[in-house]
Amino acid sequence: MTKAQEAEAALAVRRRLLALVQRHYGTQQAFLAKWPDVGPSTWKEWTRLTKPRLPSTRFLLGLVLRHGVSLDWLLTGKLKRLTTGAAEVRRLQREVLELQFENDRLKRARKKPTRTRGRSHRQHSKRRER
Fewer CB in a 10 Å sphere around the end CB: N or C, the chain? Predict the structure, then answer.
């Protein structure tokens, strides 16, 4: 990779990092308050317009795990941007509701009286008792 390509890649990581911070924290100050290990001078090095320094592996892994971000997306811009827990939670909530609905439907179906030769199950049982 040439120096020009490295600089371009670092600027792209900077853009994605700033977008992620904006989305999850709103402001850079709010981000820095939530990440005490990242000092203001370090943040400035990562986000400066000329020759930004790439964040540490430790920080990137923490960011990925905390926000469900694809490390590939963060570093290369490839793959999906977010695999957020929120999206997965919504999908699982829909699935749970569908399963609850199906469970309720099956319970109602079991409670319906069955007919045997024109009589309900209850009438058939009474006749046998006689």
Answer: C
